[in-house]
TrEMBL record:
Domain of life: Eukaryota
Organism of derivation: Setaria italica (Foxtail millet)
Protein's name according to its UniProt entry: Amidase domain-containing protein
Chain's gene name: LOC101763910
InterPro entries: Amidase_dom, AS_sf
Pfam families on file: Amidase
Amidase domain: residues covered: 48-444
Length: 508
């Protein structure tokens, strides 16, 4: 079995701890290689958890990738995993004993808060696990803690720096600290890039997995909307939000997809796309052969002549052609200027209305909470300006969302407009040209893929002249994850671009 699409992890050495059989070096590790170390007696789940806790203690003060940890709970779960491994004679679940960081908008039963970076949400407790957390636990995962993010998934107000929240502080790009970590799943990407956890989970409305994956040089999968449950997740838009993975991507995707009665409509429709036998069967090193890839040259590849990006993408296209991909160049998406303008497309109006509905429903289901409505959160922010930036940046989107009144005529018009932009845009271009995927740099196609709930995989593609990472994105129509995995894995193995950050600035 070849290794899955993954983040290439930094060199780590487990220190003391009786649970670790011997000093163990974890370099560019995958879930498969960790399990081999478990089986060989070189590592235990407790030893792995201890390793990550030390790593986080070392790096997080500078990088702000992690908001909250549950070391007691994680070590207890790791001990149970180790005991099960010693006593079991049958195959163990695919993520057995593997530590996971959840984005801070995903609820888990126990002591961890799910606050979306907001001080107003501290102390809220869910009645149970989010749907994806149930699946992670069933797959054997060990919950380590929560990853930082842009407050309210970048939907508090305009002008707030990406990766900042009152709870987590300012997340830092581990490659170039002055560069953006980008968008709301930034902590999940930073943590994965710097090996603070074996697995990290993010969410995306419009760019929140794709962009941080690109800027932090990690693989990210944004699944088809509904392929993963949003029950127990604080989301912005049921139409666009999806829970995805920004680490050891295919293994994790396989573990978290499926029907959930608490998110019935979306997950029932998307369950038809789950392939029999799972997703790992599509880790095909020859997966680019005969695939038709549409290059959206005019829409997204606008790099200056002679730039690093222009050179790198030209080389990548040559590699893909030599492997056997069919590149259909110079394609355009109709009305791309409208799609990229959230006001013109209707996306903003719909998100404002959906956010209030989704948030108030989530708050109503909590076992305990200091706030029970979006209105309560706005009042809290007005009364408790204890973080300077809370006052500096305001809460315009929250206030605008509170002023909405459900899905009325304007919102229905926005839905119809978005549907039309999808059918006449990416769907028509892909069907007319018989494409398996579209290709774009980084997260540039985020809105194109967001408004229809389409999937995407970003893979490290290179580093700009200033050292900031950038990615290549393969996107497709709903349910096209098997093709995208084949394409992305084949590209990753052919290019092997990813290199770890030096982290000198983080540990000095």
């Amino acid at each position: 079995m070849p290794p899955s699409l993954r983040f290439l992890l930094l060199l780590l050495v487990a220190g003391s701890g009786g649970a670790t059989a011997a000093a163990f070096e974890l370099e560019e590790a995958t879930i498969d290689s960790i399990h081999r170390a478990f089986a060989a007696g070189e590592l235990t789940s407790r030893g792995l958890v201890e390793l990550y806790l030390r790593r986080i203690a070392s790096l997080n003060p500078a990088l702000h990738a992690v908001i909250e940890l549950d070391p007691d709970g994680a070590l207890a779960a790791a001990d149970r995993a180790d005991a099960a491994a010693r006593s079991s004679s049958s195959a163990l679940p695919p993520l057995h004993g593997i530590p996971v960081l959840l984005k801070d908008n995903i609820a888990a039963a126990g002591p961890l808060n799910a606050t979306v970076g907001s001080l107003a949400m501290v102390g809220s407790r869910p009645a149970g696990d989010a749907g994806v957390v149930e699946r992670l636990r069933s797959a054997g995962a060990v919950l380590l803690g929560t990853a930082s993010l842009s407050e309210w998934c970048n939907f508090r107000g305009p002008g707030i720096p990406a990766g900042w929240s009152p709870r987590g502080g300012q997340g830092k790009n581990p490659y170039v600290p002055s560069a953006t970590p980008c968008s709301s799943s930034s902590g999940s990407a930073i943590a994965a890039a710097t090996n603070m956890a074996a697995v990290t989970i993010g969410t995306e409305t419009d760019g929140s997995i794709m962009c941080p994956s690109s800027f932090n040089s990690v693989v990210g999968i944004k699944p088809t909307v509904g392929l993963t449950s949003r029950a127990g997740v604080i989301i912005i838009s049921p139409r666009m939000d999806t829970v995805g993975t920004v680490s050891d991507a295919v293994h994790v995707l396989e573990a978290i997809v499926g029907y959930d009665a608490r998110d019935a409509e979306a997950t029932r429709m998307a369950s038809q796309y789950i392939p029999e036998g799972g997703y790992r069967q599509f880790l095909n090193i020859d997966g680019l052969r005969a695939k038709r890839l549409g290059i959206l040259r005019k829409d997204f590849f606008w790099f200056p002549s002679g730039s690093v990006q222009q050179k790198v993408f030209s080389e990548h296209f040559n590699i893909m052609s030599k492997i056997g991909a069919v590149l259909v160049d110079n394609l355009e998406i109709p009305s791309m200027d409208v799609i990229n303008d959230a006001v013109q497309s209707g996306e903003r109006a719909l998100m404002l209305a959906e956010f209030k509905l989704s948030l108030n429903y989530y708050l109503s289901e909590l076992a305990t909470s200091p706030v029970r409505s979006l209105s309560d959160i706005i009042d809290f922010n007005n009364k408790h300006r204890i973080e300077e930036r809370m006052a500096e940046f305001g809460q315009d989107y929250l206030i605008q969302s509170e002023a909405t009144n459900g899905i009325g005529p304007n919102e229905k018009h926005a839905i119809a407009r978005l549907n039309k932009l999808c059918k006449r845009g990416i769907e028509k271009v892909m069907q007319d040209n018989k494409l398996d995927a579209i290709v774009a740099p980084g997260a540039s196609a985020h809105s194109l893929l967001a408004i229809g709930g389409y999937p995407a995989i970003t893979v490290p593609a290179g580093y700009a002249s200033n050292g900031v990472p950038f990615a290549i994105c393969f996107g497709g129509l709903k349910g096209s994850e098997p093709k995208l995995i084949e394409i992305a894995y084949s590209f990753e193995q052919a290019t092997k671009v990813r290199k770890p950050p030096s982290l000198q600035h983080s540990i000095i």
